[in-house]
UniProtKB/TrEMBL annotation:
SUPFAM superfamilies linked: P-loop containing nucleoside triphosphate hydrolases
Residues covered by region (Disordered): 465-484, 489-509
Protein name in the entry: AAA domain-containing protein
Length: 509
């Protein structure tokens, strides 16, 4: 019998829509004012950090800050960088559409040029060498690896000359997804401008686990940690937090707050009822258990389903029997179909109409993504997706699989993921990484389902106490058991056995 128990932590006081979005607007305005003061010489800020929770609209804030910087009399040219091309390409397209192709140069390696989407190329000037950057360019955007190529700084200074500061090629260096860029990469490019602005989610997974410190000279210093943590406490650093998130449903806000307890407050632009999933009428007839489960997920409240009585897994995070349960649950949903319903919001958070996307004709972000931790696990998930695509002749964009690490920065309507602690015997650095679980739980705009083997509560009750913030990393980088318990308390909980459940045994607690 499927029993669903509501979350222990319910949504308490929160604001939505324009009132919530205004908090981000104020924080961004304060960061813009700090940048303007630094450019004017009226302040000593060398680093400006705009910290965000997942889905806070940080890229929107970065684009605005770029435009505001270029309006300043002392700023003639800026650089924008990030760790990955999948971050720089859309930013380049957005900036080019706003400022003009002659003013925005996408600085990209020749072998990655074919990967740039046509809609981006139409809005920018592409350059694979410093000598190809046009004199009209006010924004040069590229990944950190491209900027740090040996001799690139000197070549760029020769090609385009110094910016308004008279010494370096740019007046401001903007770093998108700043908490994903490790310190050693940032220090290789920070001399491109006298002022750096970092915008990003403090819960992003860095390229290398920050808990692993290979530095032998100073145990408190780690070149592989997120670079803003090196500067956040310095007097020359200005820090602001974005206090609202745009991505989640209102029902998911307690989960976001569980991940970011230091945010005071943390609100959600989407209000109650702004996002929903309408399930096909035939779903209860096809499978009553699946209907009960997906009906709960469709409300927008995060759901954790624990499965008992399974055969042993290959490894705690490589679990074909558990993935088989996911496949069984997905089949009736895909057969019956569903529709996502989304209230549109303007740039300041006011609702303005709605949008519906059917599973028979998906568009935009993928509707369903299945997330796994290890490559082998996602290989198994990809095989499952391929079977379901063939069985139901699914259209592109309806169902995909990915590793958690690869999916950060991406968005989808419905997330289905194996909980990192499923089947574990203890908490370790991998299964308790803040960023891995945070990315897993914060991609969805409409619904979230985590699946695990039964026993999470016992695992956490028996786990020894452990520190949660090694090396001073932001957030609870390695989640202690208390934080895991707080996060789980924001989920609706359910438990099933892998055998079919008769319709008359489906209930709600």
């Amino acid at each position: 019998m499927l029993e669903l128990t509501p979350p222990v932590i319910a949504l308490d006081a929160a604001v939505h829509h324009e009132e919530a979005a205004n908090g981000n607007l104020r924080a961004t305005q304060e960061a813009v004012a700090a940048l303007s003061a630094a450019l004017s010489g009226a302040a000593t800020h060398q680093k400006i950090l705009l910290r965000a929770a997942a889905g806070a609209g940080k890229s929107y804030a970065l684009v605005r800050m770029v435009r505001e910087a270029l309006d300043h009399a002392n700023c003639t040219r800026v650089a924008v960088t990030a760790f990955a091309n999948k971050q720089t390409f859309p930013l380049a397209g957005e900036l080019g559409a706003s400022l003009g192709a002659d003013k925005v140069c996408l600085f990209v390696s020749a072998d990655r040029l074919p990967d740039v989407p046509d809609e981006v190329l139409g809005n920018v000037t592409a350059a694979t060498k410093s000598s190809e950057i046009p004199a009209t360019a006010q924004v040069v955007i590229g990944v950190s690896h491209k900027f740090k190529v040996f001799g690139e700084y000197a070549r760029m200074l020769i090609a385009i000359g110094a910016a308004g500061n008279g010494e370096s090629p740019f007046d401001v260096l903007f770093v998108d997804e700043a908490w994903q860029l490790p310190l050693y990469l940032y220090t290789a490019i920070e001399n491109y401008a006298p002022i750096s602005v970092g915008v990003g989610d403090v819960g992003q997974l860095p390229p290398i686990d920050p808990s692993q410190n290979p530095w032998r000279g100073d145990p408190g210093y780690n070149p592989y940690r997120a670079w803003p943590t090196e500067y956040v406490d310095q007097e020359t650093t200005f820090v602001r937090d974005l206090p609202a998130v745009w991505r989640p449903t209102a029902s998911q806000l307690p989960l976001w707050r569980a991940f970011y307890p230091e945010w005071d407050p943390l609100n959600c632009v989407a209000g109650p009822g702004d996002r929903s999933i309408e399930l096909g009428d035939d779903l209860p007839v096809i499978d009553a258990t699946a209907a009960a489960l997906w009906s709960e997920v469709a409300t927008g409240v995060p759901v954790l389903l624990e499965v008992d009585g399974l055969e042993a897994p290959d490894a705690p995070d490589i679990d074909p029997p558990l993935l088989g349960v996911v496949e069984t649950l997905l089949m009736p949903l895909l057969e019956a179909g569903f529709t996502t319903i989304t209230s549109r919001h303007d740039g300041v958070g006011r609702p303005e109409g709605s949008k519906q996307i059917s599973s028979s004709d998906p568009s935009g972000d993928p509707l369903i993504v299945v997330l796994a931790t290890r490559n082998q696990a996602v290989d198994d998930a990809s095989e499952m997706v391929a079977r379901l695509v063939e069985k139901y002749d699914l259209p592109d964009g309806l169902l995909v699989a990915s590793t958690v690490d690869s999916w950060q920065g991406q968005t989808n309507a419905l997330t289905i993921a194996i909980h990192p602690l499923s089947g574990a015997e203890q908490l370790d650095e991998f299964n308790s990484a803040f960023g891995r679980l945070a990315v897993t739980c914060t991609r969805a705009t409409h619904g979230l389902l985590l699946v695990a083997r039964a026993g999470l509560d016992k695992l956490l009750a028996d786990a020894p106490a452990r520190p949660g913030t090694p090396l001073g990393e932001p957030g609870n980088r390695s989640l202690p058991r208390q934080t895991h318990q707080r996060i789980l308390a924001s989920f609706t909980r359910g438990q099933i056995s892998p055998s079919p459940v008769p319709a008359d045994e489906v209930g709600s607690a």
